[in-house]
Amino acid sequence: MAENFTFTHWVIFNVILAVLLVLDLKILTRNSREVSMRQAAWLTAFWWGVATVCGIWIFSAGSTEQGVNYATAFVVEKALSVDNLFVFLVIFTYFGLPDGARLRALFYGIIGALIARAIFIAIGLSIISAFSWALFVLGAFLVYTGYKIAFLGDTEVDPGQNPVVRVFRKVMPVTDQYHGHDFFTRLPSGAKAATPFLLVIIALGTTDIIFAIDSIPTVFGITKDPFVVWTSNAMAVLGLRPLFFLLSGLVQIFRFLQYGLALVLVLIGIKMVLEEAAHTFEFHLPAVTESPFLSLAVISTIFTFAIVLSKVFPSSTEDDPHAVASK
User: Rounded to whole angstroms, what are the CA distances from 101 to 82, 175, 176, 182, 265?
Assistant: First the structure.
């Protein structure tokens, strides 16, 4: 039986989340420089450890079902965040963001991802509560998204065509030079102008919104418990900064991950539609389909197989240093 998390649980988690964000910014990656592969690996392991501790807390404070759903949602959301990081890299490359500024830009990107997810979780839960048929739409959307990832490939990203960035350029002068992490500077004439760093942050913010639209329906297909939805999303987003630099060196591992992710999204979408259909039309699904352990086992197996397959059949471009940028 699922336990309801209290207001106290929400306060405790969000306070700890704020502390972790400060820890990440001020201590773990306080130097404005590239993170080495070794450091990125250690930091990634640290954030996975933090997510594991959070999962143990949910197991103990809630129920086994909530704990397993948290683990399942976390794994799926972490996989989805990989695509997010690749788009971040395209944005950095397009705007010529200096290596030393990438850590700070990634931090703002993570903040934007958390805000976007919080907003869409609240909206999504409200819609589901008011209109149960929305689950049919979300399920169909996940199936289509999985199909698109597997057969249509990634949509080419052109940050210069970002409508928000284009509008901003029209209403505010933008300099050609970066000024550290500053958003604004002064022109020789004394007029105030934005820096390219601000354009990077704007592009990251709009990207965060787009990925939240894809991400939140996925986790609703796993659980509709608001506390589990939020904690799994927040923990998946934390630690994206070191993971960004780790992926830059290990991108070949994820050659087949997109196909594994596509299959997971299709299965979650079908499960969501079938569960809502069973509720609406009053028929029963096999009891095994309701097991959170089965969902976790299937999803973990798919991702593990995709990574192993990628190592057995590595990409012919894995030695190309530009492979990531072209992703």
Answer: 20, 16, 15, 10, 34
